[in-house]
Design goal:
Blueprint (H helix, E strand, L loop, with lengths): L1 H22 L2 H12 L1 H6 L5 H18 L2 H6 L1 E9 L6 E3 H14 E16 L5 E14 L5 E15 L2 E9 L4 E5 L2
Parallel strand pairs: 1-6
Antiparallel strand pairs: 1-2, 3-4, 4-5, 5-6, 5-7
């Protein structure tokens, strides 16, 4: 009887998950999927530990995007930070170029919003002074040139280092898994 009940519950859960995925846009079901994949991270983020400090750094990064605040954005990055655009690229951008790219994007878009930023996984080095973070986000942008909206969804990887009690981004592979930018119009 227990085996049959488990089977029925599994089938019902699969059907519900399929319906949710087919009806809702990615940014609305992604938090549920992230929780299902890594429920312990959700609870660790509620406590005042290393994970929460890392989340604070990632939140500060995306808050700087929303405010178009170059100083706050660059404060999230270590002095020796590098950024790589795309997982197959060999081109590395140092902190000065990272700031220039941020400023160019702020000019390109009259409005930048990131309504969905989800930390999906955090892996620490054995000494817990380095971490790799997988982040999913959705950005709603408004092109300054013509007022057309752009919706961008992506998963990225950030590497962070803890120095003097503060977590800073040391590297980022921009658009690690996927990017779906679409303009409507």
């Amino acid at each position: 009887m227990e085996l049959f009940l488990g089977f029925v519950v599994g089938v019902v859960a699969s059907i519900l998950a399929s319906l949710i995925v087919s009806i809702l846009p990615t940014h609305q079901y992604r938090p549920v999927i992230a929780f299902g994949r890594n429920p312990s991270l959700f609870f660790r983020l509620l406590h005042h530990g290393e994970e929460r400090q890392i989340k604070g750094r990632i939140d500060a990064l995306f808050d700087a995007w929303r405010k178009k605040d170059s100083k706050a954005y660059l404060a999230c990055w270590a002095e020796d930070a590098i950024r790589i655009v795309g997982p197959k690229s060999n081109e590395e951008y140092k902190k000065g170029s990272i700031g220039a790219g941020f400023n160019a994007a702020c000019l390109r878009y009259s409005k930048i919003d990131a309504p969905c930023v989800i930390l999906e996984h955090i892996a620490f080095s054995p000494t817990r002074d380095n971490a790799v973070v997988h982040v999913y986000y959705r950005m709603n942008l408004l092109r300054a040139q013509d007022g057309l909206p752009v919706f961008e969804e992506s998963s990225e990887v950030y590497a962070l280092r803890k120095a003097d009690g503060d977590w800073l981004i040391t590297s980022n592979i921009d658009h690690f898994c996927e990017i779906r930018s679409t303009s409507t119009g």
